[in-house]
Amino acid sequence: MGIASLESQQSWPSSTPFSQPEPGDYDDDNGTELLSVSWNQDYGCFAVGTSNGFRIYNCDPFKETFRRDLKSGGFGIAEMLFRSNILALVGGGANMQYPPNKVMIWDDHQSRCVGEYSYRSNVRGVKLRRDRIVIVLEHKIYVYDFTDLKLLHQIETQSNPKGLCCLSHHSSTSVLACPGLRRGEVRVEHFGLKMTKVISAHDSQISCMTMTLDGLLLATASTKGTLIRIFNTMDGTQLQEVKLQAALCH
Questions:
Q1: Where are the domains positioned within the chain?
Q2: Full DSSP string of the chain
Q3: What Gene3D superfamilies does the entry give (predicted)?
Q4: Which one of 36, 43, 122, 141 is most buried, by most CB atoms within 10 A?
């Protein structure tokens, strides 16, 4: 991923750095709120959005890698690109210095925002892979090329307030899964194959979903919360169903 190519685009204006606090301005006992938690693409790290900035943690060994505690606001979404210096940030929390309808691409080595995407409605989710930026709104998903920043795809969905969306992360596959247009449907896009598959996964609304790193298997659960189903994303066939005890679902 080349930062120079990002900054060369007119749609990615340069920006001033976040205002940084003085040493000792923030600590873990000052009422900082946890706003979001998200894995990186290989599940070796996770990013935490807080009411005062963001933090990055390594999983094994478990430790805080770094944090950015800011005077100017917090982030409701913080997404890493593998273990690189690039993050996608969306404002959140009570101090709304950074708007919830704008995605900022943050280069932590340069300590500045190198690009922005703005929308008319709030951003519900962001997913990154080395060649794609995926931005989720409540009723639409935008897929951009990470090299030239051009819009590649627009996908309409049912109401998606949780920002449900998942991506494959193998270089040999390019797969996206998201809610479909009908209740309980999942739409799977195999971009490399130029193939779309719609899976009728549940009778009720989809509440969560995840894919294997190669994008070939999809697991879903519904708002009813009693079934987890696993599907083959190539042909949509159901491979397995796990029933949960009612006590575990409440």
A1: 1-123, 151-250
A2: --HHHHHTSTTS---PPPPPPPTTS--TTS-PPEEEEEE-TTSSEEEEEETTEEEEEEETTEEEEEEEE-SS-EEEEEEE-TTSSEEEEEEESSS-SS-TTEEEEEETTTTEEEEEEE-SS---EEEEETTEEEEE-SSEEEEEETTT--EEEEEE-S--TT---EE---TT--EEEEE-SSTTEEEEEETTTTEEEEEE--SS-EEEEEE-TTSSEEEEEETT-SEEEEEETTT--EEEEEEPPGGGG-
A3: YVTN repeat-like/Quinoprotein amine dehydrogenase (2.130.10.10)
A4: 141
At 1, the amino acid letter reads M
Structure tokens at 25: 């301005």
What is the reported pLDDT for 5?
34
The CATH architecture assigned to 1-123 reads 7 Propeller (2.130)
Of 50, 224, 233, residue with least CA distance to 243: 224
Q: What is the CATH number of domain 151-250?
A: 2.40.128
Nearest in space to 199 (alpha carbons), one of 214, 182, 223, 216: 182
> The pTM is what?
0.85
Distance set, CA 85 to CA 6, 22, 95, 112 (Å): 14, 23, 25, 11
pLDDT means per 10 residues, the chain with 250 residues, are 34 40 49 92 94 94 91 90 94 83 92 88 96 97 89 97 96 95 97 96 95 97 91 97 68
Which pLDDT score is estimated for 28?
57
β-partners of residue 74 are 92
